[in-house]
Design brief:
It is a single chain. The chain is an alpha+beta fold and 143 residues long. It has one domain. It has 4 helices and 4 strands, in the order αββαααββ. Strands 1-2-4-3 form a 4-stranded antiparallel β-sheet. A hairpin with a 4-residue loop joins strand 1 and strand 2. InterPro entries: MpsC (IPR018745).
């Protein structure tokens, strides 16, 4: 049974990587691409049958660390969220491809005061209910 049919037990890919490991690797790649450096630690977790959360630790770029040192935590949070939602398709596409599930909602958050601990959350349509429903990617603002 695959992840797309509701089995939360990750099926390995051709390299032997589980769905959760694949999603974690994609988030590291995206962070390196989008923010210039990857997180120190990353873990992906199923949160029930229809949600996936990726916890990324130590994600701040040097410029963001400087802003935090000045006390500009909210500026770091606001800027990071703008970047993440501006690149929403880049975050959701690999998750949809790897899981075989359609992303219904994407929620991104960062705690700038705790070394940029970030959580990328993906909520899927329930299995069997996604036919005809739009992917979150389809509802993203066009660039």
């Amino acid at each position: 049974m695959s992840a797309s049919s509701g089995n939360l037990e990750a099926q390995p890919d051709e390299r032997g990587l589980s769905v959760l490991a694949q999603v974690s690797n994609e988030m590291v790649r995206l962070y390196k691409e989008q923010f210039g450096r990857g997180p120190r630690r990353v873990r992906a977790h199923w949160c029930g049958a229809d949600a996936l959360a990726v916890v990324l630790e130590d994600t701040l770029a040097p410029a963001e660390r400087n802003l935090v040192a000045l006390g500009a935590h909210q500026t770091v949070r606001d800027t990071r969220l703008i970047f993440q939602y501006a690149t929403l398709p880049e975050f959701c596409e690999p998750v949809e491809r790897i899981t075989g599930r359609k992303v219904r909602a994407f929620v991104s958050g960062i705690d700038a005061e705790v070394d940029g601990l970030s959580i990328e959350s993906f909520v899927f349509y329930p299995v069997g209910e996604e036919a005809g429903q739009p992917s979150r990617i389809e509802r993203a603002p066009r660039r």
